[in-house]
Amino acid sequence: MYAIIDDGGKQYRVEEGQSILVDRKNGDPGAEVRFENVVLLSTEKGVRIQGSELEGKAVVGVIEGEVKDKKIHGRHRTLRNRTQTRTGHRQKYTEVKITKIEA
Length: 103
Fold this sequence. Notes:
This protein has strands at about 1-5, 10-15, 20-25, 30-35, 40-45, 45-50, 60-70, 70-80, 85-90, 90-100. It is mainly β. It has one domain. Strands 2-1-5-6 form a four-stranded antiparallel beta sheet, with no helix packed on it. Strands 3-10-7-4 form a four-stranded antiparallel beta sheet, with no helix packed on it. The chain starts with a strand and ends with a strand.
């Protein structure tokens, strides 16, 4: 059994027991997170697609912690002054372990 959820403009294929990285969420490790926007739900009975069949369905997970992605470097140049500036950025994600798919 698996589900496809929509969170933060991105879609994730999830199964029970799986850990996923989603955009940063407020909450402490151990807090429960509910994903209400289920796009597709696959069970033994068949596949159900977004619509009235999926109203009230949700995917429940537990926050495991915060993770940083690899560093991305950028460079800005000023042509007339012959100067360069290097900048860096590390995106923060929240690691969520899927505990239950409410079907």
